[in-house]
Amino acid sequence: MLGNDYPEQVCSVARALEVIGERWTLLIIRDAFLGVETFDELVDSLGITRTVLARRLAHLVEHGVLDRRRYHQRPDRHSYHLTPKGQELFGVIVVLTDWGDRHYPHPPGPPRLIRHHGCGGSVSAQLTCTDCYQRMERGDIEAVPGPGLLAAPGDRPDDRR
Amino acid sequence: MLGNDYPEQVCSVARALEVIGERWTLLIIRDAFLGVETFDELVDSLGITRTVLARRLAHLVEHGVLDRRRYHQRPDRHSYHLTPKGQELFGVIVVLTDWGDRHYPHPPGPPRLIRHHGCGGSVSAQLTCTDCYQRMERGDIEAVPGPGLLAAPGDRPDDRR
Questions:
Q1: Alpha helices, DSSP H only, in A36-152?
Q2: Domain ranges of chain B
Q3: Does the distance separating the beta carbons of B95 and A92 come in below 8 Å?
Q4: Residues of B numbered 140-159 whose beta carbons fall under 8 angstroms of chain A's beta carbons: which are they?
């Protein structure tokens, strides 16, 4: 069931945050990206309670971000893997890693390097125009109301973010 | 002061989330991106209490994500603007908008379009290698322990995520 964290918001960012905006969730997605896959490994990696982890994982499985697989029977043990829908969130992890590295550097250097394993170069998330393929700077981008906002109930569409 | 939401994590994603991971914060950044700038406009847009908004804004100003400007005296009124450090987070907003649009579509269409105002094309965040400029797919990317992780205290570096 879709959460209702931001029920008043006619906004795709808000919808996305209802799925992945809870405390710990983006770190679970980071771990899945890093290959931390079993429930017990996730508990160790995150240092959170089993109850909170189970709740977060169930939410992500329900929304098709993670796929749950049984890798052991009696007792049942499960591992969790990013679905294609979950993999589309890599960009978020890459931007946050980059931003954290740049603004909150660890004195010995970045804790983790995200690389192109073909050539060993660093991977970054670049804002790109899908029509002209130019790389976008802040001044090149505009956000305009789309059909979903213009059709939303309310007094004035411009008031709705 | 840096928050301590994820004190055990030697990870730039965790550091970034201590600054922008609180409930509402990414929607405040989205609003700043859309040009919603004054305290009162933000209250209207988000529908949150003035106390919560003031706390979130203070945290973002303290971390240099937003810049606070007085635009009216007696009574003092302030507006909030993304700093260059804050603008580096656009990629997160773009990925989440994209992802929300794709997986939780509004029947009439996307609420908001993020466009290149030069040519009118859509803007997306593409994972790109900064060395060979190739566009990355999931299989092209690897995350490896960096100097900050290898230097972290703990039994085995591989245990730290």
A1: 39-46, 50-62, 84-87, 90-103, 147-150
A2: 1-88, 89-141
A3: yes
A4: 140-152, 159
Tell me which residues of chain A, numbers 107 to 136, contact chain B at a CB-CB cutoff of 8 Å. Answer: 107-132, 134, 136
Q: What is the pTM of this model?
A: 0.90
Show Cβ contacts of residue A38 under 8 Å, excluding neighbours closer than 6 positions.
A71, A77, A78, A79, A80
* Least-confidence region, from B6-10, B48-52, B71-75: B6-10
**Cβ neighbours of B160 in A, within 8 Å:** 45, 111
Output the CATH code of domain B1-88: 1.10.10.10
What are the backbone dihedrals phi and psi of residue B44, each rounded to the nearest 5 degrees, phi first? -65, -45
Mean pLDDT, to the nearest integer, of B79-87? Answer: 96
User: Which ipTM score applies to this complex?
Assistant: 0.90
Q: What percent of chain B has pLDDT over 70?
A: 92
DSSP assignments along B112-145, one per residue: EEEEETTT--BEEEEEEETTT-PBPPGGGEEEEE
- CATH label, A1-86, candidates 3.40.50.720, 1.10.357.10, 1.10.10.10, 1.20.1300.10: 1.10.10.10
Hey, which residues does B122 pair with through a beta bridge? B115
Q: Residue B18: what residue type?
A: E
- In chain A, the residue whose alpha carbon lies closest to the alpha carbon of B93 is A13
Residues 6+ apart with CB under 8 A from A61: A67, A68, A80
Query: What residue of B is the nearest CA neighbor of A63?
Result: B103
pLDDT for position B155:
42
Instruction: Give the A window 23-62 contacts with B, CB below 8 Å.
Output: 23, 26-27, 30-31, 33-34, 36, 44-47
Chain B residues touching A13 at Cβ < 8 A = 26-27, 30, 93, 96-97, 100
